[in-house]
Structures are given as C-alpha cells and as structure tokens.
C-alpha cells in the first residue's frame, strides 16, 4: 500500500499540473482527495507519459460524463439489495452516468458473466456486491487490466488484486450491536438469567456473514462462559450456524429442528439472527412450535421487521441505510470521473492478497425505544411506526 500511495501522490501532483485538462476533470484540490492509486498499480511497472513524466500503466485519469457504470449485485432477495438497485439507477442517472445494473440470483458464474459483459460494454467503474467474496478474482483482474476501477459494495472482494476500495457498514461492529441488543432484550423481557439461546449466521460465501458472527461472539462468548447464556443445542461454530445463501426457509427448517430436538420441555429465550428475513423465519418457527416469542436480533431495518419491532414481535434490528451506502459509492465514482482517484480513507483491510481501502459507515441498532428518533429523517420507515 505504501508504495502505491507514494506513487499515487507523485502522479496526482504531476497530473494536476500537466495532464488533466482535457477529460472533464477539475484541478481543484479537494479536502478528501486521492492518496490511494488503483490497487493493481502496486504490481504494475511504471511507464513514460507523452510529456515525459513517470506514470503507471493505470494512473488516475478521469472520464467523461455519460460514461457507463456497471453495478453487479448478488441477488435481490433482501430489501437492501432491491433498494440498492433502485437507488443506484436514480443516483447515477441524476449524476449523468449510464448505469448497467444486474443482479446475479446468488449464482457465481452468472455474476462473472455479467461483469464480463460490463467490461465489454465499456464501463469505466464496476461496483460489485459479490455472491461469493472469493470467486471473482479472475474477472475483476481482467477489469483492472482494462483500466476499469472496481469498487466493492457492502461486501469485501477477497483474494484478488482487482479491487480499489470497498464501501460498507462495519460488519464486525454490526455483529457486536446485534449481540448487545440480544443481551439487553433478554434482561428486559425474560427476567433474570440464565437464558436459553440459539445462534444463527448468514450465508457462508458472503464475507460479511463470518464477520457479523465474529463480532456477535465477542460479546456473547463471555456470557456463555460465565453461565448467563446457554446454547442448548451446543451449536456455537459459524459453520454449524450458517444459513446457506441467506435462505430464510433454510433458517426456518433449522429452527424447527432445534426446537423439536432440544426444546420440547424448555423455553427458548433468545436467538441471534444475522438479518431480518432470518429473524422473521425464526420467530415464525417459534410461534408454530407453541413457544413464547424469544428475543431476536436482526439487520437491515426491512419494512416488515420495522413493523415487528414496533409491535414488539422482533426485539431489534440494525439499520444500515442503503441511500447512504449508494450515496458514498456515487461520491467515489464522481471523484474518479474528475480524475481525483479514490478518496482518502484511514481504514483498510487485508483481503488475503492486498490491503483494501475501506469506506466504512456506522450501523445503528434499532429497538422500539429509539425507532422514532432513529427514523426521524426516513419518512417511509417512520410511517411504519403506528
Ligand atoms: C448484507 C445484508 C443482507 C445480506 C443478505 C449481507 O451481505 O450486508 O444487509 O441482509 O447480505 O442479502
């Protein structure tokens, strides 16, 4: 990273003096302008520019308004991805770009093909929420080789040099919030402990899912160790708790089995759920089994779960507003268009091959207590609180 940063700084200075006049780029120095170059410059050789300045083969150059921008989403199975599809279209068109937006229906080969066709269609930036964080290396490196910027959206792009940065909500932090809400809810609604709980994780191919679980376990494990919490099934490893493809019906089947196998003579007090769809599946399973509704966490502030939180059926969710995430991504695209490169960020994470700059937004836990306040600027969700 260090080498790339230095190279980029040199290039940025050189280019802003000499070369950036013709491509719609502004020379105005912005407070948050570039210090990182496209990730793959680290391994690329420098070459001479026409003006004789040292320049990488993939330096920071702007592009024209009206340029094609590719958006590759993993699926449209949860509200956040549907919102992303709509909001990217609106925001990119408003900013004058030509978006190609596709969703891959949870299928890796489909996503690879969609990205290939975005490359062929002349996209200058491709934004990717991967189905599987580690399976896109080759096609993303092809994109980089074609001089295209690649931005990870919501999920990390792993084991590839073909990524310039990732925009996301803190995923370990999200898990911590989910677990803390579970503990708070148990103390508030289920009397004094110890409490019987079960744990659920998200889709194992999604790099967020193990991180959500890791964050949650950092809060729950000490309470398991001191006897406040009992995981009655004993299933505490991510691999045992994960929900393939984030499929709500798979989570509901697992919950049915847990209840019939371990809770025929016991109350279940709480369940860690990685998102709202799975939370509702868990709650439905408990209702079907004649259990009192346990304290259940969630994620996404989906409309239906916001209503359930408000009516007391689901204890909590975590809001990670899609408009903010899309807005941040479009801001980065505009910086690239101006020729200002990837904006500076202090956060980075190793994706197995390189340190990837992370543009991180803060998730917010929502319970009935703070819902009105938290959604004060979100009229659509506010209207659900009635
Ligand atoms: C997202 C969640 C979403 C889940 C399933 C995760 O990567 O961060 O918002 O619920 O995928 O689509």
Tell me about this structure.
- This protein is an alpha/beta fold and 386 residues long.
- It has 13 helices and 15 strands.
- It has helices spanning 2-18, 79-94, 108-120, 137-145, 171-189, 208-225, 238-241, 248-262, 276-288, 303-311, 322-338, 371-374, 379-382, and strands at residues 46-48, 54-56, 68-73, 98-103, 125-128, 149-153, 165-169, 195-199, 229-231, 270-272, 295-296, 317-319, 347-350, 355-361, 364-366.
- The protein has a seven-stranded mixed sheet with strand order 4-3-5-6-7-14-13, sandwiched between helices. It has a four-stranded parallel sheet with strand order 9-8-10-11, sandwiched between helices. Strands 1-2 form a two-stranded antiparallel sheet.
- It is elongated and about 65 Å long.
- 48% of the residues are buried.
- Residues 1-59 have low confidence and may be disordered.
- Beta-D-glucopyranose (BGC) binds at residues 77-78, 80-81, 154-155, 202, 206, 208, 246, 275, 299-300.
- Beta-D-glucopyranose (BGC) is lined by residues 77-78, 80-81, 154-155, 202, 206, 208, 246, 275, 299-300.
Tell me the layout of helices and strands.
Layout: H1 2-18, E1 46-48, E2 54-56, E3 68-73, H2 79-94, E4 98-103, H3 108-120, E5 125-128, H4 137-145, E6 149-153, E7 165-169, H5 171-189, E8 195-199, H6 208-225, E9 229-231, H7 238-241, H8 248-262, E10 270-272, H9 276-288, E11 295-296, H10 303-311, E12 317-319, H11 322-338, E13 347-350, E14 355-361, E15 364-366, H12 371-374, H13 379-382
Parallel strand pairs: 3-4, 3-5, 5-6, 6-7, 7-14, 8-9, 8-10, 10-11
Antiparallel strand pairs: 1-2, 12-15, 13-14
Helix pairs in contact: 2-11, 3-4, 5-6, 8-9
Beta-D-glucopyranose binds next to α2.
């Amino acid at each position: 990273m260090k080498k790339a940063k230095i190279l980029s700084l040199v290039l940025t200075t050189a280019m802003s003096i000499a070369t950036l006049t013709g491509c719609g780029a502004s020379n105005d120095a912005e407070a948050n302008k570039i210090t990182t170059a496209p990730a793959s410059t680290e391994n690329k050789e420098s070459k001479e520019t026409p003006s004789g300045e040292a320049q990488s083969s993939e330096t920071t150059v702007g592009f024209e308004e009206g340029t094609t921008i590719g958006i590759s989403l993993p699926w449209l199975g949860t509200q956040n991805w549907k919102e992303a599809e709509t909001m990217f279209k609106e925001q990119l068109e408003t900013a004058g770009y030509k978006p190609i937006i596709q969703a891959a229906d949870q299928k890796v080969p489909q996503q690879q093909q969609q990205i290939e066709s975005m490359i062929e269609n002349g996209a200058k930036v491709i934004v990717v929420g991967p189905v599987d964080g580690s399976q896109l290396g080759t096609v993303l490196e092809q994109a980089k080789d074609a001089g295209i910027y690649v931005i990870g959206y919501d999920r990390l792009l792993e084991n590839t040099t073909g990524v310039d940065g990732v925009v996301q909500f803190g995923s370990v932090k999200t898990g911590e919030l989910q677990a803390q809400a579970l503990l708070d809810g148990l103390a508030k609604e289920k009397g004094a402990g110890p409490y019987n709980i079960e744990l659920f994780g998200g889709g194992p191919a999604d790099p967020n899912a193990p991180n959500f679980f890791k964050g949650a376990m950092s809060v729950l494990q000490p309470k398991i160790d001191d006897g406040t919490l009992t995981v009655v099934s004993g299933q505490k490893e991510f691999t045992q708790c994960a929900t393939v493809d984030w499929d709500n019906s798979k989570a509901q089947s697992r919950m049915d089995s847990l209840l019939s196998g371990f809770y025929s003579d016991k109350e279940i007090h709480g369940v860690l759920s990685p998102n709202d769809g799975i939370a509702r599946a868990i709650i439905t399973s408990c209702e079907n089994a004649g259990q009192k509704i346990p304290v259940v966490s969630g994620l996404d502030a989906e409309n239906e779960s916001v209503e359930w939180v408000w009516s007391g059926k689901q204890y909590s969710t975590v809001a990670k507003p899609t408009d903010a995430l899309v807005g941040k991504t479009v801001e980065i695209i505009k910086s690239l268009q101006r020729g200002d490169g990837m904006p500076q960020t202090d956060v980075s994470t190793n994706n197995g091959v390189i340190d990837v700059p992370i543009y991180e937004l803060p998730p917010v836990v929502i319970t009935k207590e703070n819902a009105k306040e938290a959604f004060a600027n979100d009229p659509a969700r506010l209207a659900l609180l009635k």
